[in-house]
Design brief:
10 strands; 284 residues; two-stranded parallel sheet; alpha/beta
């Protein structure tokens, strides 16, 4: 008999967890999160799945989730379908067919869309893509963290990669945290896939990946937003760590949504996956 798939084992373990207590106003504002999301191979990494699920359970169960993913760059600002059970986007290739059959059928997110519009300026045009589900930067990690798929989720596009503008967008989202909404920026702390020489889950980190990760960890620990914002010229390992920047810039939405963007963050996941830094954190 073949061994069960690691994600099946994950579901068996999580099914035995204690009930997840829903957020209440007494809990105060939820933190904002930056997570390194992984692609379908995340479902094959038991340790990483354990870390993500434990992170979710360390927080009250959110009333809704608003997530910005590296895999949707679009201006003007856009959101995914608010309808329940929208088919996810399978924006990856070359993986086991099982991953193209996976779904993440979340509830209607119309109430969250209304909350989002209420905190954005009247001059901000927001378009809903009624047929667009969550892409893998959203549904893959959330399927691990909240496997019951019982929390409304809305994905928002990245309308720019300018750190200052993304920080300002995050600041607009800050009040949602006080309403039980979990604000997430989903990317990957290093993402130089084209420069990897070894494709194994436990591959050693290339120098450019380890150096960029150490630099980011230091800046985040000091709350140095200016240093992070000037990553293109100041970060070691560039441009190898980020040949394109969409996996790093969601971090600025996370920091902008924090109560104090210049306070040190709490690191929740460290280490490397395929040699890429999977550093993830939460900001109060």
């Amino acid at each position: 008999m073949a061994a069960p798939h690691p994600f099946e084992t994950h579901l068996e373990k999580t099914a035995q967890a204690e009930p997840h207590q829903l957020w209440t106003p007494d809990d105060g504002a939820l933190p904002s999160l930056y997570l390194s999301h992984g692609a379908p191979p995340l479902f094959e990494d038991s340790g990483w799945m354990d870390q993500l699920f434990a992170w979710a359970r360390s927080l009250p169960k959110p009333k809704a989730i608003l997530i910005v993913s590296a895999h949707w760059e679009m201006a003007p600002l856009s959101v995914s379908s608010t309808r329940a059970n929208t088919t996810p986007v399978y924006d990856f290739g070359g993986f086991d067919p099982r991953y193209y059959r996976m779904r993440y059928d979340t509830p209607d997110a119309s109430a969250l869309a209304s909350q989002l519009l209420a905190v954005l300026p009247d001059t901000e045009t927001v378009h809903e893509h009624r047929e667009r589900g969550l892409d893998h930067g959203a549904w893959v990690p959330l399927k691990v963290m909240y496997p019951d798929a019982d929390v409304p989720v809305l994905q928002m596009s990245i309308p720019t990669h300018d750190p200052a503008r993304l920080m300002a967008l995050g600041e607009r989202l800050r009040p949602l945290r006080e309403q039980g909404v979990l604000v997430i920026g989903s990317g990957f702390m290093t993402h130089g896939l084209r420069y990897l020489r070894e494709w194994s889950l436990d591959a050693a980190a290339p120098g450019w990946s380890a150096e960029f990760d150490a630099w980011a960890a230091d800046a985040l620990a000091r709350g140095d937003v200016d240093e992070l914002s000037n990553y293109l010229s100041r970060a070691p390992g560039m441009p190898y760590a980020h040949p394109t920047v969409e996996h790093f810039t969601p971090l600025f939405v996370t920091l902008g949504a924090a109560t104090d963007p210049e306070s040190p963050v709490t690191t929740t996941v460290e280490g490397f996956f395929l040699g890429l830094a999977k550093r993830s954190f939460q900001a109060a």
